[in-house]
Amino acid sequence: MSEYERSRTMTAPPEVVFDRACDLEQLDSWLPHDLHVRGEEPPSVTVHEDSTGKDERGLFRAQRDQLRVEWGTRDDGRYAGWLQVAGISDQASDVTVHLSFFDEENAPPGDEIDHELEKSLERLAEMVRA
User: Fold this and answer.
1) Digits of tens for pLDDT over the chain (130 positions)?
2) 68: which strand partners?
3) Are strands 68-73 and 79-89 parallel, antiparallel or unpaired?
4) Contact of 57 with 46, CB cutoff 8 Å
5) Which backbone phi and psi does 37 adopt, to 5 degrees?
6) N or C: which terminal CB in the chain sees fewer CB atoms within 10 Å?
7) Contact 81/72 with Cβ under 8 angstroms?
């Protein structure tokens, strides 16, 4: 199993960050650019990956009372992740994203994952700042 985690402080209230992070219509704006999420009947989603051209059945849950979003593969359990928003003040939040790959043979290279996590958090920070 491989695990990756990144955190970033964002200049926005925690509820605003959470609302943007869990909005299925806006996920493509902050996720890695080759991933596209299509909502189905909750908690089901389909994730399309441009690099492979494949669709994957997934799960997506947003827990407003905990300011937490969780996701993962639906059929084989080889991948899971979560995003946690914590309030620092009325206008600042700490956001942590965690990814777990249970099938290391099919996981992307670690440096690629680190880069995409950093870029995704940057895009989310830009969204909540706008």
Assistant:
1) 899 999 999 999 999 999 999 999 999 999 988 889 999 888 999 999 898 898 999 999 999 999 999 999 998 888 999 999 999 998 999 999 999 999 877 788 889 999 999 999 999 999 998 7
2) 63, 84
3) antiparallel
4) yes
5) -105, 130
6) C
7) yes
The length of the chain in residues reads 130
Residue 116 CB neighbour total at 10 angstroms: 20
pLDDT confidence of residue 33: 85
Query: CA-CA distance, 32 to 14, in Å (whole number)?
Result: 22
* Confidence at residue 21, expressed as pLDDT on a 0 to 100 scale: 96
Q: State the SS3 of the chain.
A: CEEEEEEEEECCCHHHHHHHHHCCCCHHHHCCCCEEEEECCCCEEEEEECCCCEEEEEEEEEEHHHCEEEEEECCCCCEEEEEEEEEEECCEEEEEEEEEECCHHHCCCHHHHHHHHHHHHHHHHHHHHC
The HSE-up count of residue 114 (CA atoms within 13 Å, CB side) is 4
